[in-house]
Amino acid sequence: MVVCFMVFALRLKKGSLSSGMLMSLQRNKRKNSERIEAFIMRYGSDLAPKRYSYSDIKKITKSFKDKLGEGGFGSVYKGKLPGGRLVAVKVLSESREDGEEFINEVASISRTSHVNVVTFLGFCYESSIRALLYEFMPNGSLDKYIYHHRSPDKSCILNRKTMFEIAVGVARGLEYLHRGCNTRILHLDIKPHNILLDENFVPRISDFGLAKLCERKGSILSSITARGTIGYIAPELFC
């Protein structure tokens, strides 16, 4: 009898703990949703890109039919706008509940306009759905060409002239982000995977999930901590 009571008590305690954790997660999720909505309401008039509904996203991607790739951030799908323009739709993973990456990307890239920075066309925030719409880059990301030995496709091999022009284009894009915008934008995750290539292999800097907005005056290094992908973090951050 005593043993049965102890087992019942332990189960009750375990159940109450799980309920408490669930309630805490729900509260945090609600706060994060309110935070994102507050951001959109505050800066909505300054955000040129259009806000789409989830039903719009499903139509644009034909119910997420054509997946271009996936990663820790979520998945990317090919889509088409009503006017016929091809787009890439990045749907963020639901596990990223803090909303920081979503806010970073919308806040930073909506301020940009440069040939070497990917064009941001719109976003979707509806319940737990967070999606970002960009111009479609037919030649994919630079890593496919740098690590071409991993692919049997000989078309992935670029000549030196093209590689040089890509490097110069990326440098111009970074120069624009650091000095050409009214607000300095630090990307903090420049790597081959985040450099997209158009039909003419003109590079576009993409993925601003870790980006940080800074004042044009003052030191960059004093305002940030080291973050990004190991192997690509700026070495001066560790000095």
UniProtKB/TrEMBL annotation:
Major place of residence: membrane
An example Gene Ontology molecular-function term: protein serine/threonine kinase activity
Gene Ontology CC entries for this record: membrane
Superkingdom per UniProt: Eukaryota
PROSITE patterns noted in UniProt: PROTEIN_KINASE_ATP, PROTEIN_KINASE_DOM, PROTEIN_KINASE_ST
Subcellular location: Membrane
Catalytic activity: L-threonyl-[protein] + ATP = O-phospho-L-threonyl-[protein] + ADP + H(+); L-seryl-[protein] + ATP = O-phospho-L-seryl-[protein] + ADP + H(+)
Membrane topology value: Single-pass type I membrane protein
InterPro entries: Kinase-like_dom_sf, LRK10/LRL21-25-like, Prot_kinase_dom, Protein_kinase_ATP_BS, Ser/Thr_kinase_AS
Domain annotation Protein kinase: ranges: 62-239
Listed Pfam families: Pkinase (PF00069)
Residues where ATP binds: 90
EC numbers, comma separated: 2.7.11.1
SUPFAM superfamilies: Protein kinase-like (PK-like)
Record keywords, A-Z: ATP-binding, Glycoprotein, Kinase, Membrane, Nucleotide-binding, Serine/threonine-protein kinase, Signal, Transferase, Transmembrane, Transmembrane helix
First-tier enzyme category under EC: transferase
Protein family membership: Belongs to the protein kinase superfamily.
Protein name as catalogued: non-specific serine/threonine protein kinase
